């Protein structure tokens, strides 16, 4: 019988991962030194604290540039207007959790170096997981996407940091497939990761953006201190929604993972909506997953998690990771 359990080492209301650089409040003075363009977006909240307006795309983009330069040595990072601008602390938390997953099969030793190959399904224009994963652990990546325009922007970020040797970007020509057409014959990956589209339609995505902005209202600028920016609905269609939404995407991922079970040691995906977890666990059991881990994550008041599964038993996973 497959074993399915929540990872008790990370409680449901846990803070950021212990190795995450971003505990506590941002040091905006330090970040402005790393990226002087951030200064133009500083403001004071209703409570009197210095901050930025997290609903303003330009402000969040400059904050990301500052974080990437200061903590990860990533000198070049840019995305076009209207593309998804990811929160760096949450993205790197997912990577730390995956590193722990591999370490458990690797005698407790954290996986470091380009021999650890990772597949990013839906890499996006921001190519954030490959950039962070290589900076933190030295991993090499293959990133796939169905949008040629997104890959063009992602490639500019990779080239701007001279990481072509360790980050390979591939177009998924068949929108109905995730792994087939990306993973080559004989290729093996220690991990696959994914941040799937949350919503089932453009209308649902727009409603979700409105709710997010309402939640940010407490951090809006003091009236008169700085003009409030336009609403941020950042994200291209394929970044925000797909037919059937997150639940359908996850079902497709599980079904397709069976076909490449011998080429990927651990499959994983973020799961935004907790109501999708029971169905996902049932499907993984039917698919024959030998091990399933559910790892909780948290950033401030936001609660999330990722689910990882492997078709290899523990002894085989350990042999997989042995050099040679």
From TrEMBL:
One of its GO terms (molecular function) is 23S rRNA (adenine(1618)-N(6))-methyltransferase activity. One of its GO terms (biological process) is rRNA base methylation. Residues 1-21 are annotated as: Disordered. InterPro entries: METTL16/RlmF, rRNA_lsu_MeTfrase_F, SAM-dependent_MTases_sf. It holds the Pfam family Methyltransf_10. One of its GO terms (cellular component) is cytoplasm. Keywords: Cytoplasm, Methyltransferase, rRNA processing, S-adenosyl-L-methionine, Transferase. Its main location: cytoplasm. It is found in: Cytoplasm. It catalyses: adenosine(1618) in 23S rRNA + S-adenosyl-L-methionine = N(6)-methyladenosine(1618) in 23S rRNA + S-adenosyl-L-homocysteine + H(+). Its EC number is 2.1.1.181. Specifically methylates the adenine in position 1618 of 23S rRNA. PANTHER family: RNA N6-ADENOSINE-METHYLTRANSFERASE METTL16 (PTHR13393:SF0), SAM-DEPENDENT METHYLTRANSFERASE (PTHR13393). Belongs to the methyltransferase superfamily. METTL16/RlmF family. HAMAP family: 23SrRNA_methyltr_F. This is Ribosomal RNA large subunit methyltransferase F. It comes from Stenotrophomonas koreensis. The gene is rlmF.
């Amino acid at each position: 019988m497959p074993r399915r359990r929540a990872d008790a080492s990370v409680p449901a209301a846990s803070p950021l991962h212990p190795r995450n650089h971003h505990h506590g409040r941002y040091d905006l003075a330090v970040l402005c030194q790393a990226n002087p363009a951030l200064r133009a977006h500083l403001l004071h909240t209703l409570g009197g604290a210095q901050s930025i307006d997290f609903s303003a795309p330009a402000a969040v983009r400059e904050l990301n540039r500052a974080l990437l330069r200061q903590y990860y040595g990533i000198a070049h990072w840019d995305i076009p207007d209207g593309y998804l601008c990811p929160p760096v602390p949450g993205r790197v938390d997912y990577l730390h959790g995956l590193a722990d997953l591999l370490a458990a099969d690797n005698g407790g030793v954290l996986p470091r170096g380009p021999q650890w190959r990772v597949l990013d399904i839906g890499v996006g224009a921001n190519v954030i997981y490959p950039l962070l994963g290589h900076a933190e652990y030295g991993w090499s990546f293959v990133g796939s996407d169905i949008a040629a325009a997104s890959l063009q922007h992602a490639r500019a970020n990779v080239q701007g940091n001279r990481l072509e040797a360790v980050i390979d970007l591939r177009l998924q020509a068949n929108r109905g497939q995730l792994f087939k057409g990306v993973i080559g014959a004989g290729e093996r990956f220690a991990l696959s990761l994914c941040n799937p589209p949350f919503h089932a339609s453009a209308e649902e995505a727009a409603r979700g953006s409105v709710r997010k902005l309402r939640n940010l209202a407490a951090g809006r600028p003091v009236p008169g201190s700085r003009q409030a920016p336009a609403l941020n609905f950042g994200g291209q269609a394929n970044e925000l929604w797909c037919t059937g939404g997150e639940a359908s995407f996850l079902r497709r991922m599980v079904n397709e993972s069976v076909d490449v079970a011998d080429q990927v040691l651990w499959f994983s995906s973020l799961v935004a909506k907790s109501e999708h977890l029971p169905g996902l666990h049932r499907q993984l059991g039917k698919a024959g997953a030998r091990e399933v881990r559910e790892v909780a994550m948290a950033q401030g008041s936001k609660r999330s998690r990722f689910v990882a599964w492997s078709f290899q038993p523990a002894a085989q996973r350990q042999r997989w990771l042995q050099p040679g």
